[in-house]
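Researcher: Please predict.
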Amino acid sequence: MTGPVLSDAQINALSPHDRQDLIRRLARPPDELLPPPRTVPRMRRWRLTVVIGSAVALIPWTVYLGLTLPDRHVARNWSVTWVGFDTLLLAMFALTAVLGVLRRQLLVLAVFTSGLLLLCDAWFDVTTAGPGEFWQSVGIAVLLELPIAVLLISSALRLVWLTAARLWLIQPGTRLWQVPLLYLDPGELTRPA
């Protein structure tokens, strides 16, 4: 077959619903990409079990730590811990910059991770600040770290939304939490949330 089946003019004339239907029909079938169909639900259940089990186990552990940890503790490798964390943060910022310049899909993960690490950095900077450092740490967190973290995380979420909207998988106005996983079969994408 030579030439496109539909011209640009014909595609532009399609309604959003018809475009969405066409994209779904042209998408590579999940069975070409995923393990055997009987394996996928088992893998999903296993992963969800690990995540849910971890969350449940973390509740009593957090309560235990809250009740038993001292307010003060002398830490070994304090400088290694902070330099290591900041090196990781620097590496994620560099990766985010490179993926942003190259316009690669992995940018979504890198930018989200950079924002999350920056939130962690702000939290630990403030909560571990020594005498005379507290207000400086709060100022840096409020004026720099938190706004940049919010910008990064919201950018990642916006990219996920834009990708789904661009592929006609969601309608304008759809909230991000309603966006389905994109590898699902077309029947699952049309089910109500």
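Model: The CA atoms of residues 165 and 173 lie 10 Å apart.
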